Amino acid sequence: MRKTAQKLIVATLCASVLVSAPAVAAVADTYQKTCATCHDSGALNAPKKGDTAIWERLKSQKGMDALVQSTKKGMPQMPAMGLCGSCSDQDFKDLINYMAN
């Protein structure tokens, strides 16, 4: 019984890696096409990709839903939808989490 459970756990983890890799690649591609211009360099005071301290503070202070709404509505330094007119709320959440890491 124990070996069966271990095999099931390993199979589940392997499957999640196979599903996650394309999803991460899609997020990275969207980031490069729509967010990187400002978030790679910090242009216009954009929080930089990979600055986990700033991103965690923003997520903690505002919450993910408020960050998504801000992105959709735009900010003085960022156009509405952050240059991703086809992004869904989930896409924006994925992009924010991607930038936070």
TrEMBL record:
The keyword Transmembrane does not apply. Coiled coil: none annotated. The keyword Heme applies. InterPro entries: Cyt_c-like_dom, Cyt_c-like_dom_sf, Cyt_CIE. SUPFAM superfamilies: Cytochrome c. Keywords: Electron transport, Heme, Iron, Metal-binding, Signal, Transport. Residues 1-25 form the signal peptide. Residues 22-101 form the Cytochrome c domain. GO terms for molecular function: electron transfer activity; heme binding; iron ion binding. Pfam families: Cytochrome_CBB3. This is Cytochrome c5 family protein. It comes from Moraxella caviae.
